[in-house]
Write a structure and sequence with these properties.
- The protein has 319 residues and is mostly helical.
- It has a domain of 196 residues: MetI-like fold (Orthogonal Bundle).
- The chain is built from 11 helices and no strands.
- Helix 4 packs antiparallel against helix 5, helix 9 packs parallel to helix 10 and helix 9 packs antiparallel against helix 11.
- The radius of gyration is 24 Å and the shape is globular.
- The longest helix is centred in the C-terminal third of the chain and has 38 residues.
- 74% of the residues lie in helices and 0% in strands.
C-alpha cells in the first residue's frame, strides 16, 4: 500500500504542474489588469508604471511563471506564494487564516451528508417502488438538480428573513467570539446549502448500491436460513453496499470545496471560497493562483484517498 501511495503521488506531480501552467495562462489571458483599479485622474502614468514594475507585470510571461512556480513550492517561506495585490499581505498567511473556517464548514457538511444520506438511501432501497421510495427519489432528484446559488438564496431568505431563526451572515455574532453554540448556529444555513446536493447524490447512489446487494445470492441465503430482517440488512447487505459508497468520501472533498465558493459568498462566511471569489473580482492574481493550486492539490488528494479507502474496505482489491 505504501509503495502504491508513493507511486500515485509521483504520478500526480506532472498533473499539478500542468494545472499550474494552465491556470497561470488563463490568469494572464483574462481581460483587464490588477492595475486597472488604480487608474484614476489622481494617479499619474509614472506611478502606474512604477506599480507595474513593483508587481513584476512588465516581465515576460515565461519569466513570471518560472519565478512564481519556483517560489510557490517553497512553502516554508512566508513570501512563497507572493503578496496580495489587494492588501499587500503574504498570500500564504491569508490562506492559512481562512483554512480552519472552510474545514469546519466542509467537515460539518460531510458529516451531515453521511448521517442522513445512508439511512435515506437504505430506506428507499428496502421500500423499492413504494410511495416512500418514489418520494425520496423525487426529492433527491430535485435536491441534486437545483443550482447551489439558488438553494443558498432560498435558505438565506426563508431561514434568516422570513423566519428570523438564523443569522444572515458571518461566522460568529459580534462580541461572542469563542461561543460554540453561536458558532454552530451560524453554520446551520451554510451547511444545509452545501450538504443538500451531496445528500441527494449520496442517497441515490446508496439506493442503487443497496438494491444491487439485496439481489445477491448470499442475501437470499441469509433470508432462507431464517435470520432476522435487521441482521440480514445490517450485517450482510449494508456492509457490502457501503464498499462503493466509502469511495465517495474522497471524491466529495473537491466537490465540497468547489461548492464552498458559492456558499461562503452567499452567507458572507469568511473561508477560502469567499476569498477566492473576492480575489477573482479584484484580479488579485497571486491569491487566485494560490487558491487554484490548493484546489488542484485537494482534487489529487481526494482521488488518492478514494482509491486507498476502496482497497482498505474491500479485501479483494490489491495494489
Amino acid at each position: 500500500m505504501f509503495s502504491y501511495i508513493v507511486r500515485r503521488t509521483l504520478q500526480a506531480l506532472p498533473i499539478l504542474f500542468g494545472v499550474a501552467v494552465i491556470v497561470f495562462m488563463i490568469v494572464q489571458l483574462a481581460p483587464g489588469s490588477p492595475i486597472d483599479r488604480f487608474r484614476t485622474p489622481r494617479i499619474s502614468p509614472a506611478q502606474l508604471d512604477a506599480l507595474i514594475r513593483l508587481y513584476g507585470l512588465d516581465q515576460p510571461i515565461l519569466d513570471q511563471f518560472v519565478k512564481w512556480i519556483t517560489a510557490f513550492v517553497q512553502v516554508w517561506r512566508v513570501d512563497a506564494w507572493g503578496y496580495s495585490f489587494l492588501d499587500g499581505q503574504p498570500v500564504l498567511n491569508k490562506v492559512l487564516e481562512r483554512v480552519p473556517a472552510t474545514v469546519r464548514l466542509m467537515g460539518a457538511a460531510l458529516l451531515t451528508t453521511i448521517v442522513l444520506a445512508v439511512p435515506i438511501g437504505v430506506l428507499a432501497a428496502v421500500k423499492q417502488y413504494s410511495w416512500t421510495d418514489k418520494l425520496i427519489t423525487t426529492l433527491a432528484t430535485i435536491g441534486y438538480a437545483i443550482p447551489s446559488f439558488i438553494l443558498g438564496l432560498y435558505l438565506l431568505y426563508f431561514g434568516g428573513v422570513v423566519l428570523k431563526a438564523f443569522p444572515l451572515f458571518g461566522m460568529q455574532s459580534f462580541g461572542k467570539s469563542g461561543d460554540v453554540a453561536d458558532l454552530i448556529w451560524h453554520l446551520v444555513l451554510p451547511v444545509a446549502s452545501l450538504a443538500i446536493q451531496q445528500i441527494a447524490g449520496w442517497a441515490r447512489y446508496m439506493r442503487s448500491s443497496m438494491l444491487e446487494v439485496l439481489h445477491q445470492d448470499y442475501v437470499r441465503t441469509a433470508k432462507a436460513k431464517g435470520l432476522p430482517r435487521s441482521r440480514v440488512l445490517g450485517k450482510h447487505a449494508l456492509r457490502n453496499a457501503m464498499i462503493p459508497i466509502i469511495t465517495l468520501l474522497g471524491l466529495s472533498i473537491p466537490a465540497l470545496l468547489a461548492g464552498a465558493a458559492i456558499t461562503e459568498t452567499i452567507f458572507s462566511y469568511p473561508g477560502l471560497g469567499a476569498m477566492f471569489v473576492q480575489s477573482v473580482t479584484v484580479r488579485d492574481y497571486p491569491t487566485v493562483l494560490a487558491l487554484t493550486m490548493v484546489g488542484g492539490v485537494t482534487v489529487v488528494v481526494g482521488n488518492l484517498l478514494a482509491d486507498v479507502l476502496y482497497g482498505v474496505v474491500d479485501p479483494r482489491i490489491k495494489y
